[in-house]
């Protein structure tokens, strides 16, 4: 197995981040610093990252979590603020979030120790859809604003791809996008005169938040994981 893949399967980091660690000279195999991510290693190889031995491949797990407002979607925070990892019993596994969800937003986020799957779910080329429900200001949302969102919005970092949008009632709308820009939904809505007051992600690809209470989590079944891999 290639070294970068070995680290990803061991839960050290995603494969891309593992490649960066290797190239930076932070990984050794059998006592020798290795800078080639493609270096072959065996299951019983002695691999060390930043002076800490890697225990080998962990069982792959994937959790769906209903992140509350105020909780950060990061693995750790230097200021001691709560993170999504605190919502799931790790049981010794090195979990990390799949993608991001703003601290002031709530909803569905995934945690895993499968770096390869995490990369597939977040890489722009795979265009995984994410669905949000937004309560917005500026009064009831009219068809001109909805049509603008459907066509795509010109933001300061370039135009967005067209979104699927529907008005649920008054000032509550549902948007589905497949990009992952910083605070994208909030910026899109503000651009059409309807700043977001509350925002929740209700779906990630085929997974939905249905029935998962705020702050709760559940481990995904093998069939659900395979469905994600097939996207």
Descriptive overview:
The protein is of the alpha+beta class and about 230 residues long. It folds into three domains: about 5-55, RNA-binding S4 domain (Structural Genomics Hypothetical 15.5 Kd Protein In mrcA-pckA Intergenic Region, Chain A); about 60-125 and about 205-230, Alpha-Beta Plaits (2-Layer Sandwich); about 130-205, Alpha-Beta Plaits (2-Layer Sandwich). Helix content is about 20%, strand content about 25%. The protein is built from six helices and 15 strands. It has helices spanning about 5-10, 15-25, 115-120, 145-150, 185-190, 220-230, and strands at about 25-30, 30-35, 45-50, 50-55, 60-65, 95-100, 105-110, 130-135, 155, 160, 165-170, 170-175, 195-205, 205-210, 215-220. The strands form three sheets. Strands 5, 6, 7, 8, 11, 12, 13, 14 and 15 form a nine-stranded mixed β-sheet that branches. The protein has a four-stranded antiparallel β-sheet with strand order 2-1-3-4. It has a two-stranded antiparallel ribbon with strand order 9-10. Strand 1 (about 25-30) and strand 2 form a beta hairpin. The longest helix has 9 residues, at about 15-25. The chain is elongated, with a radius of gyration of 20 Å.
């Amino acid at each position: 197995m290639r070294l970068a893949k070995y680290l990803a399967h061991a839960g050290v980091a995603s494969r891309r981040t593992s490649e960066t660690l290797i190239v930076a000279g932070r990984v050794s195999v059998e006592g020798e610093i290795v800078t080639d991510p493609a270096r072959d290693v065996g299951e019983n190889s002695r691999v060390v990252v930043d002076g800490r031995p890697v225990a080998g491949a962990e069982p792959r797990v994937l959790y769906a979590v209903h992140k509350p407002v105020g909780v950060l979607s990061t693995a750790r925070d230097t200021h001691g603020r709560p993170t999504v990892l605190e919502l799931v019993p790790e049981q010794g596994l090195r979990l990390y979030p799949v993608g991001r969800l703003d601290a002031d937003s709530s909803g569905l986020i995934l945690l895993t120790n499968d770096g390869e799957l995490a990369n597939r779910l977040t890489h722009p080329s795979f265009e995984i859809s994410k669905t949000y429900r937004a309560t917005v200001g500026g009064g009831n949302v009219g068809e001109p604003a909805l049509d603008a969102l459907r066509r795509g919005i010109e933001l300061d970092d370039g135009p967005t791809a067209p979104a699927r949008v529907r008005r649920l009632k008054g000032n509550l709308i549902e948007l589905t996008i497949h990009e992952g820009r910083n605070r994208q939904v909030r910026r899109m809505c503000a651009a059409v005169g309807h700043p977001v007051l509350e925002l929740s992600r209700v779906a990630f690809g085929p997974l939905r938040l249905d029935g998962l209470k705020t702050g709760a989590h559940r481990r995904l079944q093998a069939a659900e994981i395979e469905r994600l891999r097939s996207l």
